[in-house]
Amino acid sequence: MKYLPLLLILSSGLALAQTTPAVPTETETAAPAVPLIDIMGQGGVMMIPLAALALLALILIILYMLTIRRATVVTNRFMNAADSMLRKRDFMGLLSYSHRRSEMVARLCAKSLQFVTENPTASVDEVKDVAETEGSRQSSILAQRITWLADIGAIAPMLGLLGTVIGMIKSFMLISQGSVGNLPMQLASGVSEALVTTASGLVVGITAMVFHSYFKGRVNRLLSEFEAASTHLISLLTSQLKNQATPGVTGQQVAPVHPHPHPQTGEMYAPQDVVMPHGQ
Where is the MotA/TolQ/ExbB proton channel domain (predicted)? Predict the structure, then answer.
């Protein structure tokens, strides 16, 4: 009889173990992985323009990585050759060499030298005006190239927001129809479309803006080097034009002419050189 309580406890434990469901393991409760392409496919029709913007942003990023660099703006090879030719006043040779180069500073130099050769009587200020105008044009071309990424960064989130609104409209239209048969699944479809388009627009927009900021810093650094190089070349060109416009032997001074006293009279002028007024 003394073992009766122990037997009761064991029998109740066995009964509880048989009635309690088994706890699922971690592998059994884990949701199946959904491929990314399937998630993107749930975004609806707005995923088409978002995919096009993403592809365009990728192409622009690769293109800017290859083209926005120092070799396309100014190189030491061109600067050394241009400095040597300008000091020798070989304007035609430098003009021909500049046409064969692709740097921005080479295009500036070619434009300035072409104006000098076509207008030999042009003043130094006119040459500087032409150089400044061409330099501003080249700088604006380089700076405006990266605005495409800024536009994509602004448009992509707006498209994502539009997709969100379309998805929510679909969900509320289902609610307004009053069909409660499979309503939770239909609402989940509209909400998932809204969330997927929002996330996609933000991903594309944030990526575009990040690379736009990176390329903007690179462009500003290259424009500083372009301004320094163009200032050096134009200053050297205008100085050579000034020296060419005033030829002569340097280092010689003309002595002033002073009247000398006459060797016989000691006067400053000879008697026959003095013109007496009439009436004397």
Answer: 104-227
